[in-house]
Amino acid sequence: MKPLTCLGMMCVALLSSAAMAADTVVVGSKIFTEGYVLGELAAQSIEAARPPVAVVRKLGMGSTGILFQSLNSGAIDVYSDYTGTLAEAILKNPNLRSVTEIHAALLKMGIVISAPLGFDNTYALAVREDFAARNGLHTISDLGRLRDSLRTGFSYEFMDRQDGYPGLAQRYRLGLDPAHVNRMEHSLTYQAIAQGAVDVIDVYSTDAKIREFKLRVLADNLGYFPSYQAVWVARAAFVAQHPAQWQALRGWENRLSAATMQDLNAQVDLDRRSVAQVVSGLRGSTVQTDTIAAQIGRRTLEHLWLVGASLAFSLLVGVPLGIAAVRYPRAGQVILTFSAITQTVPSLALLCFLIPLFGVGARPALAALCLYSLLPVVLNTFTGLRSIDPRHLENARAFGLTPRQILLRIELPLASPALLTGIRTATIVSIGTATLAALVGAGGYGVPIVSGLSLNDVPTILTGAIPAALMAWLAHLGFNALGKLVIPAGLRAT
Amino acid sequence: MLVLEHISKAFDGKPVLTDVNLAVPKGATRALIGSSGSGKTTLLRITLRLIDPDQGSVRINDQPLSAFGPEAWADQIGYVPQEGGLFPHLTGEQNVALVPRLRGWPPQRLSTRMTELLQLVALDAALLRRFPHELSGGQKQRLAIMRAAMMDPAVMLLDEPMAALDPLIRSALQQDLKAIFLRLGKTVLIVTHDLGEAVFLAEQVTLLHAGKVLQTGSYRDLLLTPADPFVTAFINAQRTLPDVAQLR
């Protein structure tokens, strides 16, 4: 077993979060406005169907890769995706254009898709209206005239997909200056183009922000972009177990026009209405939403649980590992190298690796946080113990102290300043990193940050970012106080 | 009575101690003297049971080392490390009471013994509340001696007790140390490189050189009937200041 797997499993065994109940349906969604709206629509439709089942919302989890992996591992039951994306990113076969072909190919993988929901959300390129007027831009081909000066703000997904920028550049023989081809987080590209930092961005054709930012969508005059019809994507097992719920979802087939979708997106993005309210409006029902205080309270508990549990793990495992690394130098090298390597894995990548092992929700997030908080604790335990004057240890032996007494009464107290520094670092890193847990549906302060980012909604971002900063600050104060309590006075003064 | 018999020890095939014999009679104070590299630290560590000798045996009051468990042996030897060796994270009181507490002494017994020993080492009880960094070198040494005497050991073992002290404090502590040893009536072994200190504190001196005992005797013996030319060389090397006669 790989050490990563092994450690992660230890972590989960230690913290064993509650297993999902059998008749619970988990709805996932992509991390942009339309994804949230369709995810919420799926969740509310399933909740309204009979017989009733409990619905868990894991909205805003990430992009196609994470969602499809989650679906495959059974961590989520259903989400919405687009035919072009499924053909390109999942089936790796851009030639599959019809819904029937894609349906047949996915069925072999145990995945079922619905008929199209009615609208086509294809990729498109957009420029500012004034920029288009000044340069006489109407089609993508027109961009070729500006190839030496044109600055792009393309999303990561668009840059990396075969049916995204690489193919587009080839088809249209754009030949843009690579130095001006910027890749950035999709939700930030609108700000960038509004401020004139870039000239052209990739958009989704139903995006409400096209109107808000006064952008002109350039015509795909060579017919390059494939069709991106929205469909429900579900596990075949879910369809079999919950036929009524699946029927409720299929009730939306061919009912959402591009205009309807653009309007729903605009209600969220422009009118700043909550996704739940917008979807209820569409369904003709009303929902109750939490007050902001209640939301922050709930997220504080979720965040504390993530940080607290991973901290408990790093103490229970990290301190003994640090001690072992001092006692057995050869194993110590392995332990220290391993802890250091886990620290270098980017947090998003680590979350991605952990989804197949742990599904979505608190478990992969906890596993990732455990791994991240390990290094500071292990390393500081190790260096704290190693820096003890060896004469103290020899004297303790000469006084007849047993190895256990030496560890508890001499070594750990003498190493306590370093140890506490390690735990403090681990805590503060955890509080920050735990905001990413929202990407895998673990909740916490990351939820408003992630959804606020993708909805371009600064106040929402702040309802997550400010409490997270406060928590880090309180942790800092708490550790100052703890230091006075735990570190022997004889060591503090020296 | 402390007896080291036929002690030999080699590290990586290099002999450090060769057939060392040393017997300190009950109640006597002996100095083990030698320059660095003479093997005196190794002998000290063997006596403390921190390392095992390749050959030979250590006995206290005719009982061999092997007859004691590690804790019981430690309680038989009151060890005063170099510079006192107080643990920096513990107060004076916690340092002194560390081992008795681990042995489960009741508080009453602990405080009685501490009062007794405070008097012996001439320390103010208030100093017990201080941490080592708040104490002078002499105070630390006195606390370390107190700590070593707590378990009422048969033997006291001191490692370079004066090395880190400045000359005036040193002279005062030397006087007190002699009185303390006298009142404790214990078998004492002092490990030092300083001949003056050795001669002042101990009736007899054992000179160790290159892992072998060159001579055991009083200062007079060493001076008048040296067993080896090195003995004379060692004594002369330590007499660094010229006396008045030489200056005239």
Structural description of this entry:
- The complex is a heterodimer of chains A (494) and B (248).
- By secondary structure, chain A is an alpha/beta fold.
- Chain A has 3 domains: 20-120 and 228-283, Periplasmic binding protein-like II (D-Maltodextrin-Binding Protein, domain 2); 123-218, Osmoprotection protein (prox), domain 2 (D-Maltodextrin-Binding Protein, domain 2, 3-Layer(aba) Sandwich), CATH 3.40.190.120; 292-492, MetI-like fold (Orthogonal Bundle).
- Chain A contains 23 helices and 10 strands.
- Chain A has helices spanning 3-15, 33-48, 64-72, 83-90, 99-107, 129-135, 156-160, 165-171, 186-194, 209-212, 236-241, 243-250, 258-269, 275-283, 292-327, 329-344, 347-358, 362-386, 390-398, 403-433, 446-454, 458-486, 489-492; strands spanning 24-30, 54-62, 78-82, 111-113, 123-128, 152-155, 181-184, 200-204, 215-218, 230-235.
- In chain A, α2 links the parallel β1 and β2 (54-62).
- The model of chain A is unreliable at 1-21 (pLDDT under 50).
- By secondary structure, chain B is an alpha/beta fold.
- Chain B has a domain at 2-87 and 155-239: P-loop containing nucleotide triphosphate hydrolases (Rossmann fold).
- Chain B is built from 10 helices and 10 strands.
- In chain B, α3 packs parallel to α5.
- Chain B is globular.
- The model of chain B has no long low-confidence stretch (mean pLDDT 90).
- The interface between A and B is medium-sized, with 23 and 26 residues.
